[in-house]
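<given_protein>
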Amino acid sequence: MIRVLLVDDQPLIRSGFRALLDLEDDIEVVAEAADGSEGLRLAREHLPDVALVDIRMPVVDGIEATRRIAADAALAGVHVVILTNYGLDEYVLDALRAGAAGFLVKDVVPEDFLHAVRVAARGDALLAPSITRRLISRYVAQPPGTGAGTGLEELTGREREAVVLVARGLSNDEIADRMVISPLTAKTHINRAMSKLRARDRAQLVILAYESGLVTPRTS
């Protein structure tokens, strides 16, 4: 059973998400919060698998709530998916840097919303395709970084290849097909790369790939 915490200051939005999630046999909404401070308290109380967090909220906003959840060792198993009406680049970058495992706009179709919850519960990153395109476009328009101090030199060739494919938005199955390996081996390469690069999750791995220059307009 996937345990979900809803954090949004609009009761109608929370009710809609709850109604959708309650229809699923493998998902349970364990608590609701109207702001980030309450959300953090309830996350510590209920230890959900997934926290669905709005960005713009009173008291403590979604970015700061995500940052606090990510920094709390006791909440290491809580995966934050940001839900917002604002698919703006600065919010995407701030949310991912804060430790979010996913980022979806609120007009997402129900099937994709439910898929995001399940993907996040597995510990994988998920970005809406429209947001992924904007994120990649923003990075490829900038000069690549030097990669100094990122730990890229510790990666094997296959691990580097897997990281590049993760940054392109491919799933484990798609990476396995591209690299002609099993999905389990693909996941192993990705997990080892995350460990070496000290990336909390795949979303932060994507950020590091672009910021370090591992993925550039020439390789993407």
